[in-house]
Amino acid sequence: QVQLVESGGGLVQAGGSLRLSCAASRRTIRTYAMGWFRQAPGKEREFVATISRSGGRTDYADSVKGRFTISRDNAKNTVYLQMNSLKPEDTALYYCAAAEQLLGRTARQYDYWGQGTQVTVSS
Predict the structure, then answer these.
(1) Suppose 69 and one of 4, 82, 108, 120 were both cysteines; which one would form an S-S bond, judging by CB atoms 3.0 to 4.6 Å apart?
(2) Could you give the CA distance from residue 28 to residue 40 in angstroms, rounded to a whole number?
(3) CA-CA distance, 7 to 21, in Å (whole number)?
(4) pLDDT tens-digit profile of 110-122?
(5) Strand-by-strand arrangement of the 78-83 sheet
């Protein structure tokens, strides 16, 4: 099974940017749709963005559309989430996930998960 490790989180001021990375090992990510989810304290895990196996299709939560960009480099076995114009409400633990089936917005559609990277946006 694929192993996922997120990185790139940190503390940033509102309006700033961060780029998250999700490095995969043990298996190539070419056969997986990939997604990013986040979970804030006291809240349920929520969908952020997803990308198809080839990278030709993407989908975003309305709350991040126009600010976040998901991309993938299958040669490097890595998925990225570029986050711009960050807001305090973006503060959460961000998870990378891999789906053996089609890309989707629900967590149960994803088969493998990383441990998460913390993003904190100060006002």
Answers:
(1) 82
(2) 30
(3) 5
(4) 999 999 999 999 9
(5) 3-7, 18-25, 78-83, 68-73
Give which of 57, 37, 59 is closest to 47, Cα–Cα.
37
Q: Distance (Å, rounded) from C-alpha 91 to C-alpha 12?
A: 10
Q: What is the pLDDT of residue 8?
A: 98
> What's the chain look like in SS3?
CCEEEEECCEEEECCCCEEEEEEEECCCHHHCEEEEEEECCCCCCEEEEEECCCCCCEEECCCCCCCEEEEEECCCCEEEEEECCCCHHHCEEEEEEEECCCCCCCHHHCCEECCCEEEEEEC
Q: What is the pLDDT of residues 30-83, one digit of tens each?
A: 999 999 999 999 999 999 999 999 999 999 999 999 999 999 999 999 999 999
Q: Which residue in the block uniquely carries the two structure tokens 């998870």? A: 95
